[in-house]
Amino acid sequence: MAGTRKYYTIEEANQTLPFVKAVVADIVRQYREVSDRRDRLEAIRKRDKKGRDSVYSEEVAHIEQEFEKDVRVLQGFLDELNALGVEFKDFEKGLLDFWSKMDGRDVFLCWHLGEDEVSHWHEVDAGFAGRQSLLAGSATGTDEEVNGA
Asked: Max alpha carbon distance in the chain (Å)?
């Protein structure tokens, strides 16, 4: 059903990680390429005040095309995570959140590139700074709670 939020147990979130890790690694890499290309375009435009009739116009047009293509590829990766109900948060850290339930309230299970498993959570409004360890027994994330049983 469209518009229904996907809630994950800790186990379900960890089961998605092989795929999620690959997509997030692609996002981080692609974001760097997009950023580098954007920076190059800005530098050329600053050097070249003449516009379309300058010696740089062909190079600018080519870089703009490549930039647009890179942005579309990046958006495709983000769409893959969105289709899973995962919320991507940070391009440099490769940070994302899985919706979950804890003690009847919405929380995020938090993961970033380089971590082996989902091992942290935070309140929906707390962000990365509010991360807490799941190992401390602070979250259950049981199937019954997540699935409403």
From this structure: 67
Dist CA 59 CA 44 (whole Å): 9
Q: What are the sequence ranges of the domains in the chain? A: 13-84
Taking a C-beta distance cutoff of 8 angstroms, is the pair 65, 5 a contact?
no
Beta bridge partners, 142, equal: none
pTM for the whole structure: 0.81
Looking at residue 31, its amino acid is Y
For residue 67, give the nearest of 91, 36, 32, 37 by alpha carbon. Answer: 37
Give me the residue label for tokens 């602070």.
Answer: 138
22 residue type, one letter: A
Q: What is the mean pLDDT of the chain?
A: 86
Residue with tokens 């518009």: 3
Task: Say what percent of the chain tops pLDDT 70.
Answer: 83
> Euclidean distance between the first and final Cα of the chain, in Å?
19
Confirm if 91 and 28 have CB atoms less than 8 A apart. yes
Q: In whole angstroms, give the CA distance from residue 145 to residue 64.
A: 49
Whose tokens are 């580098």? That residue is 36
Report pLDDT digits (tens) over 63-76: 899 999 999 999 99
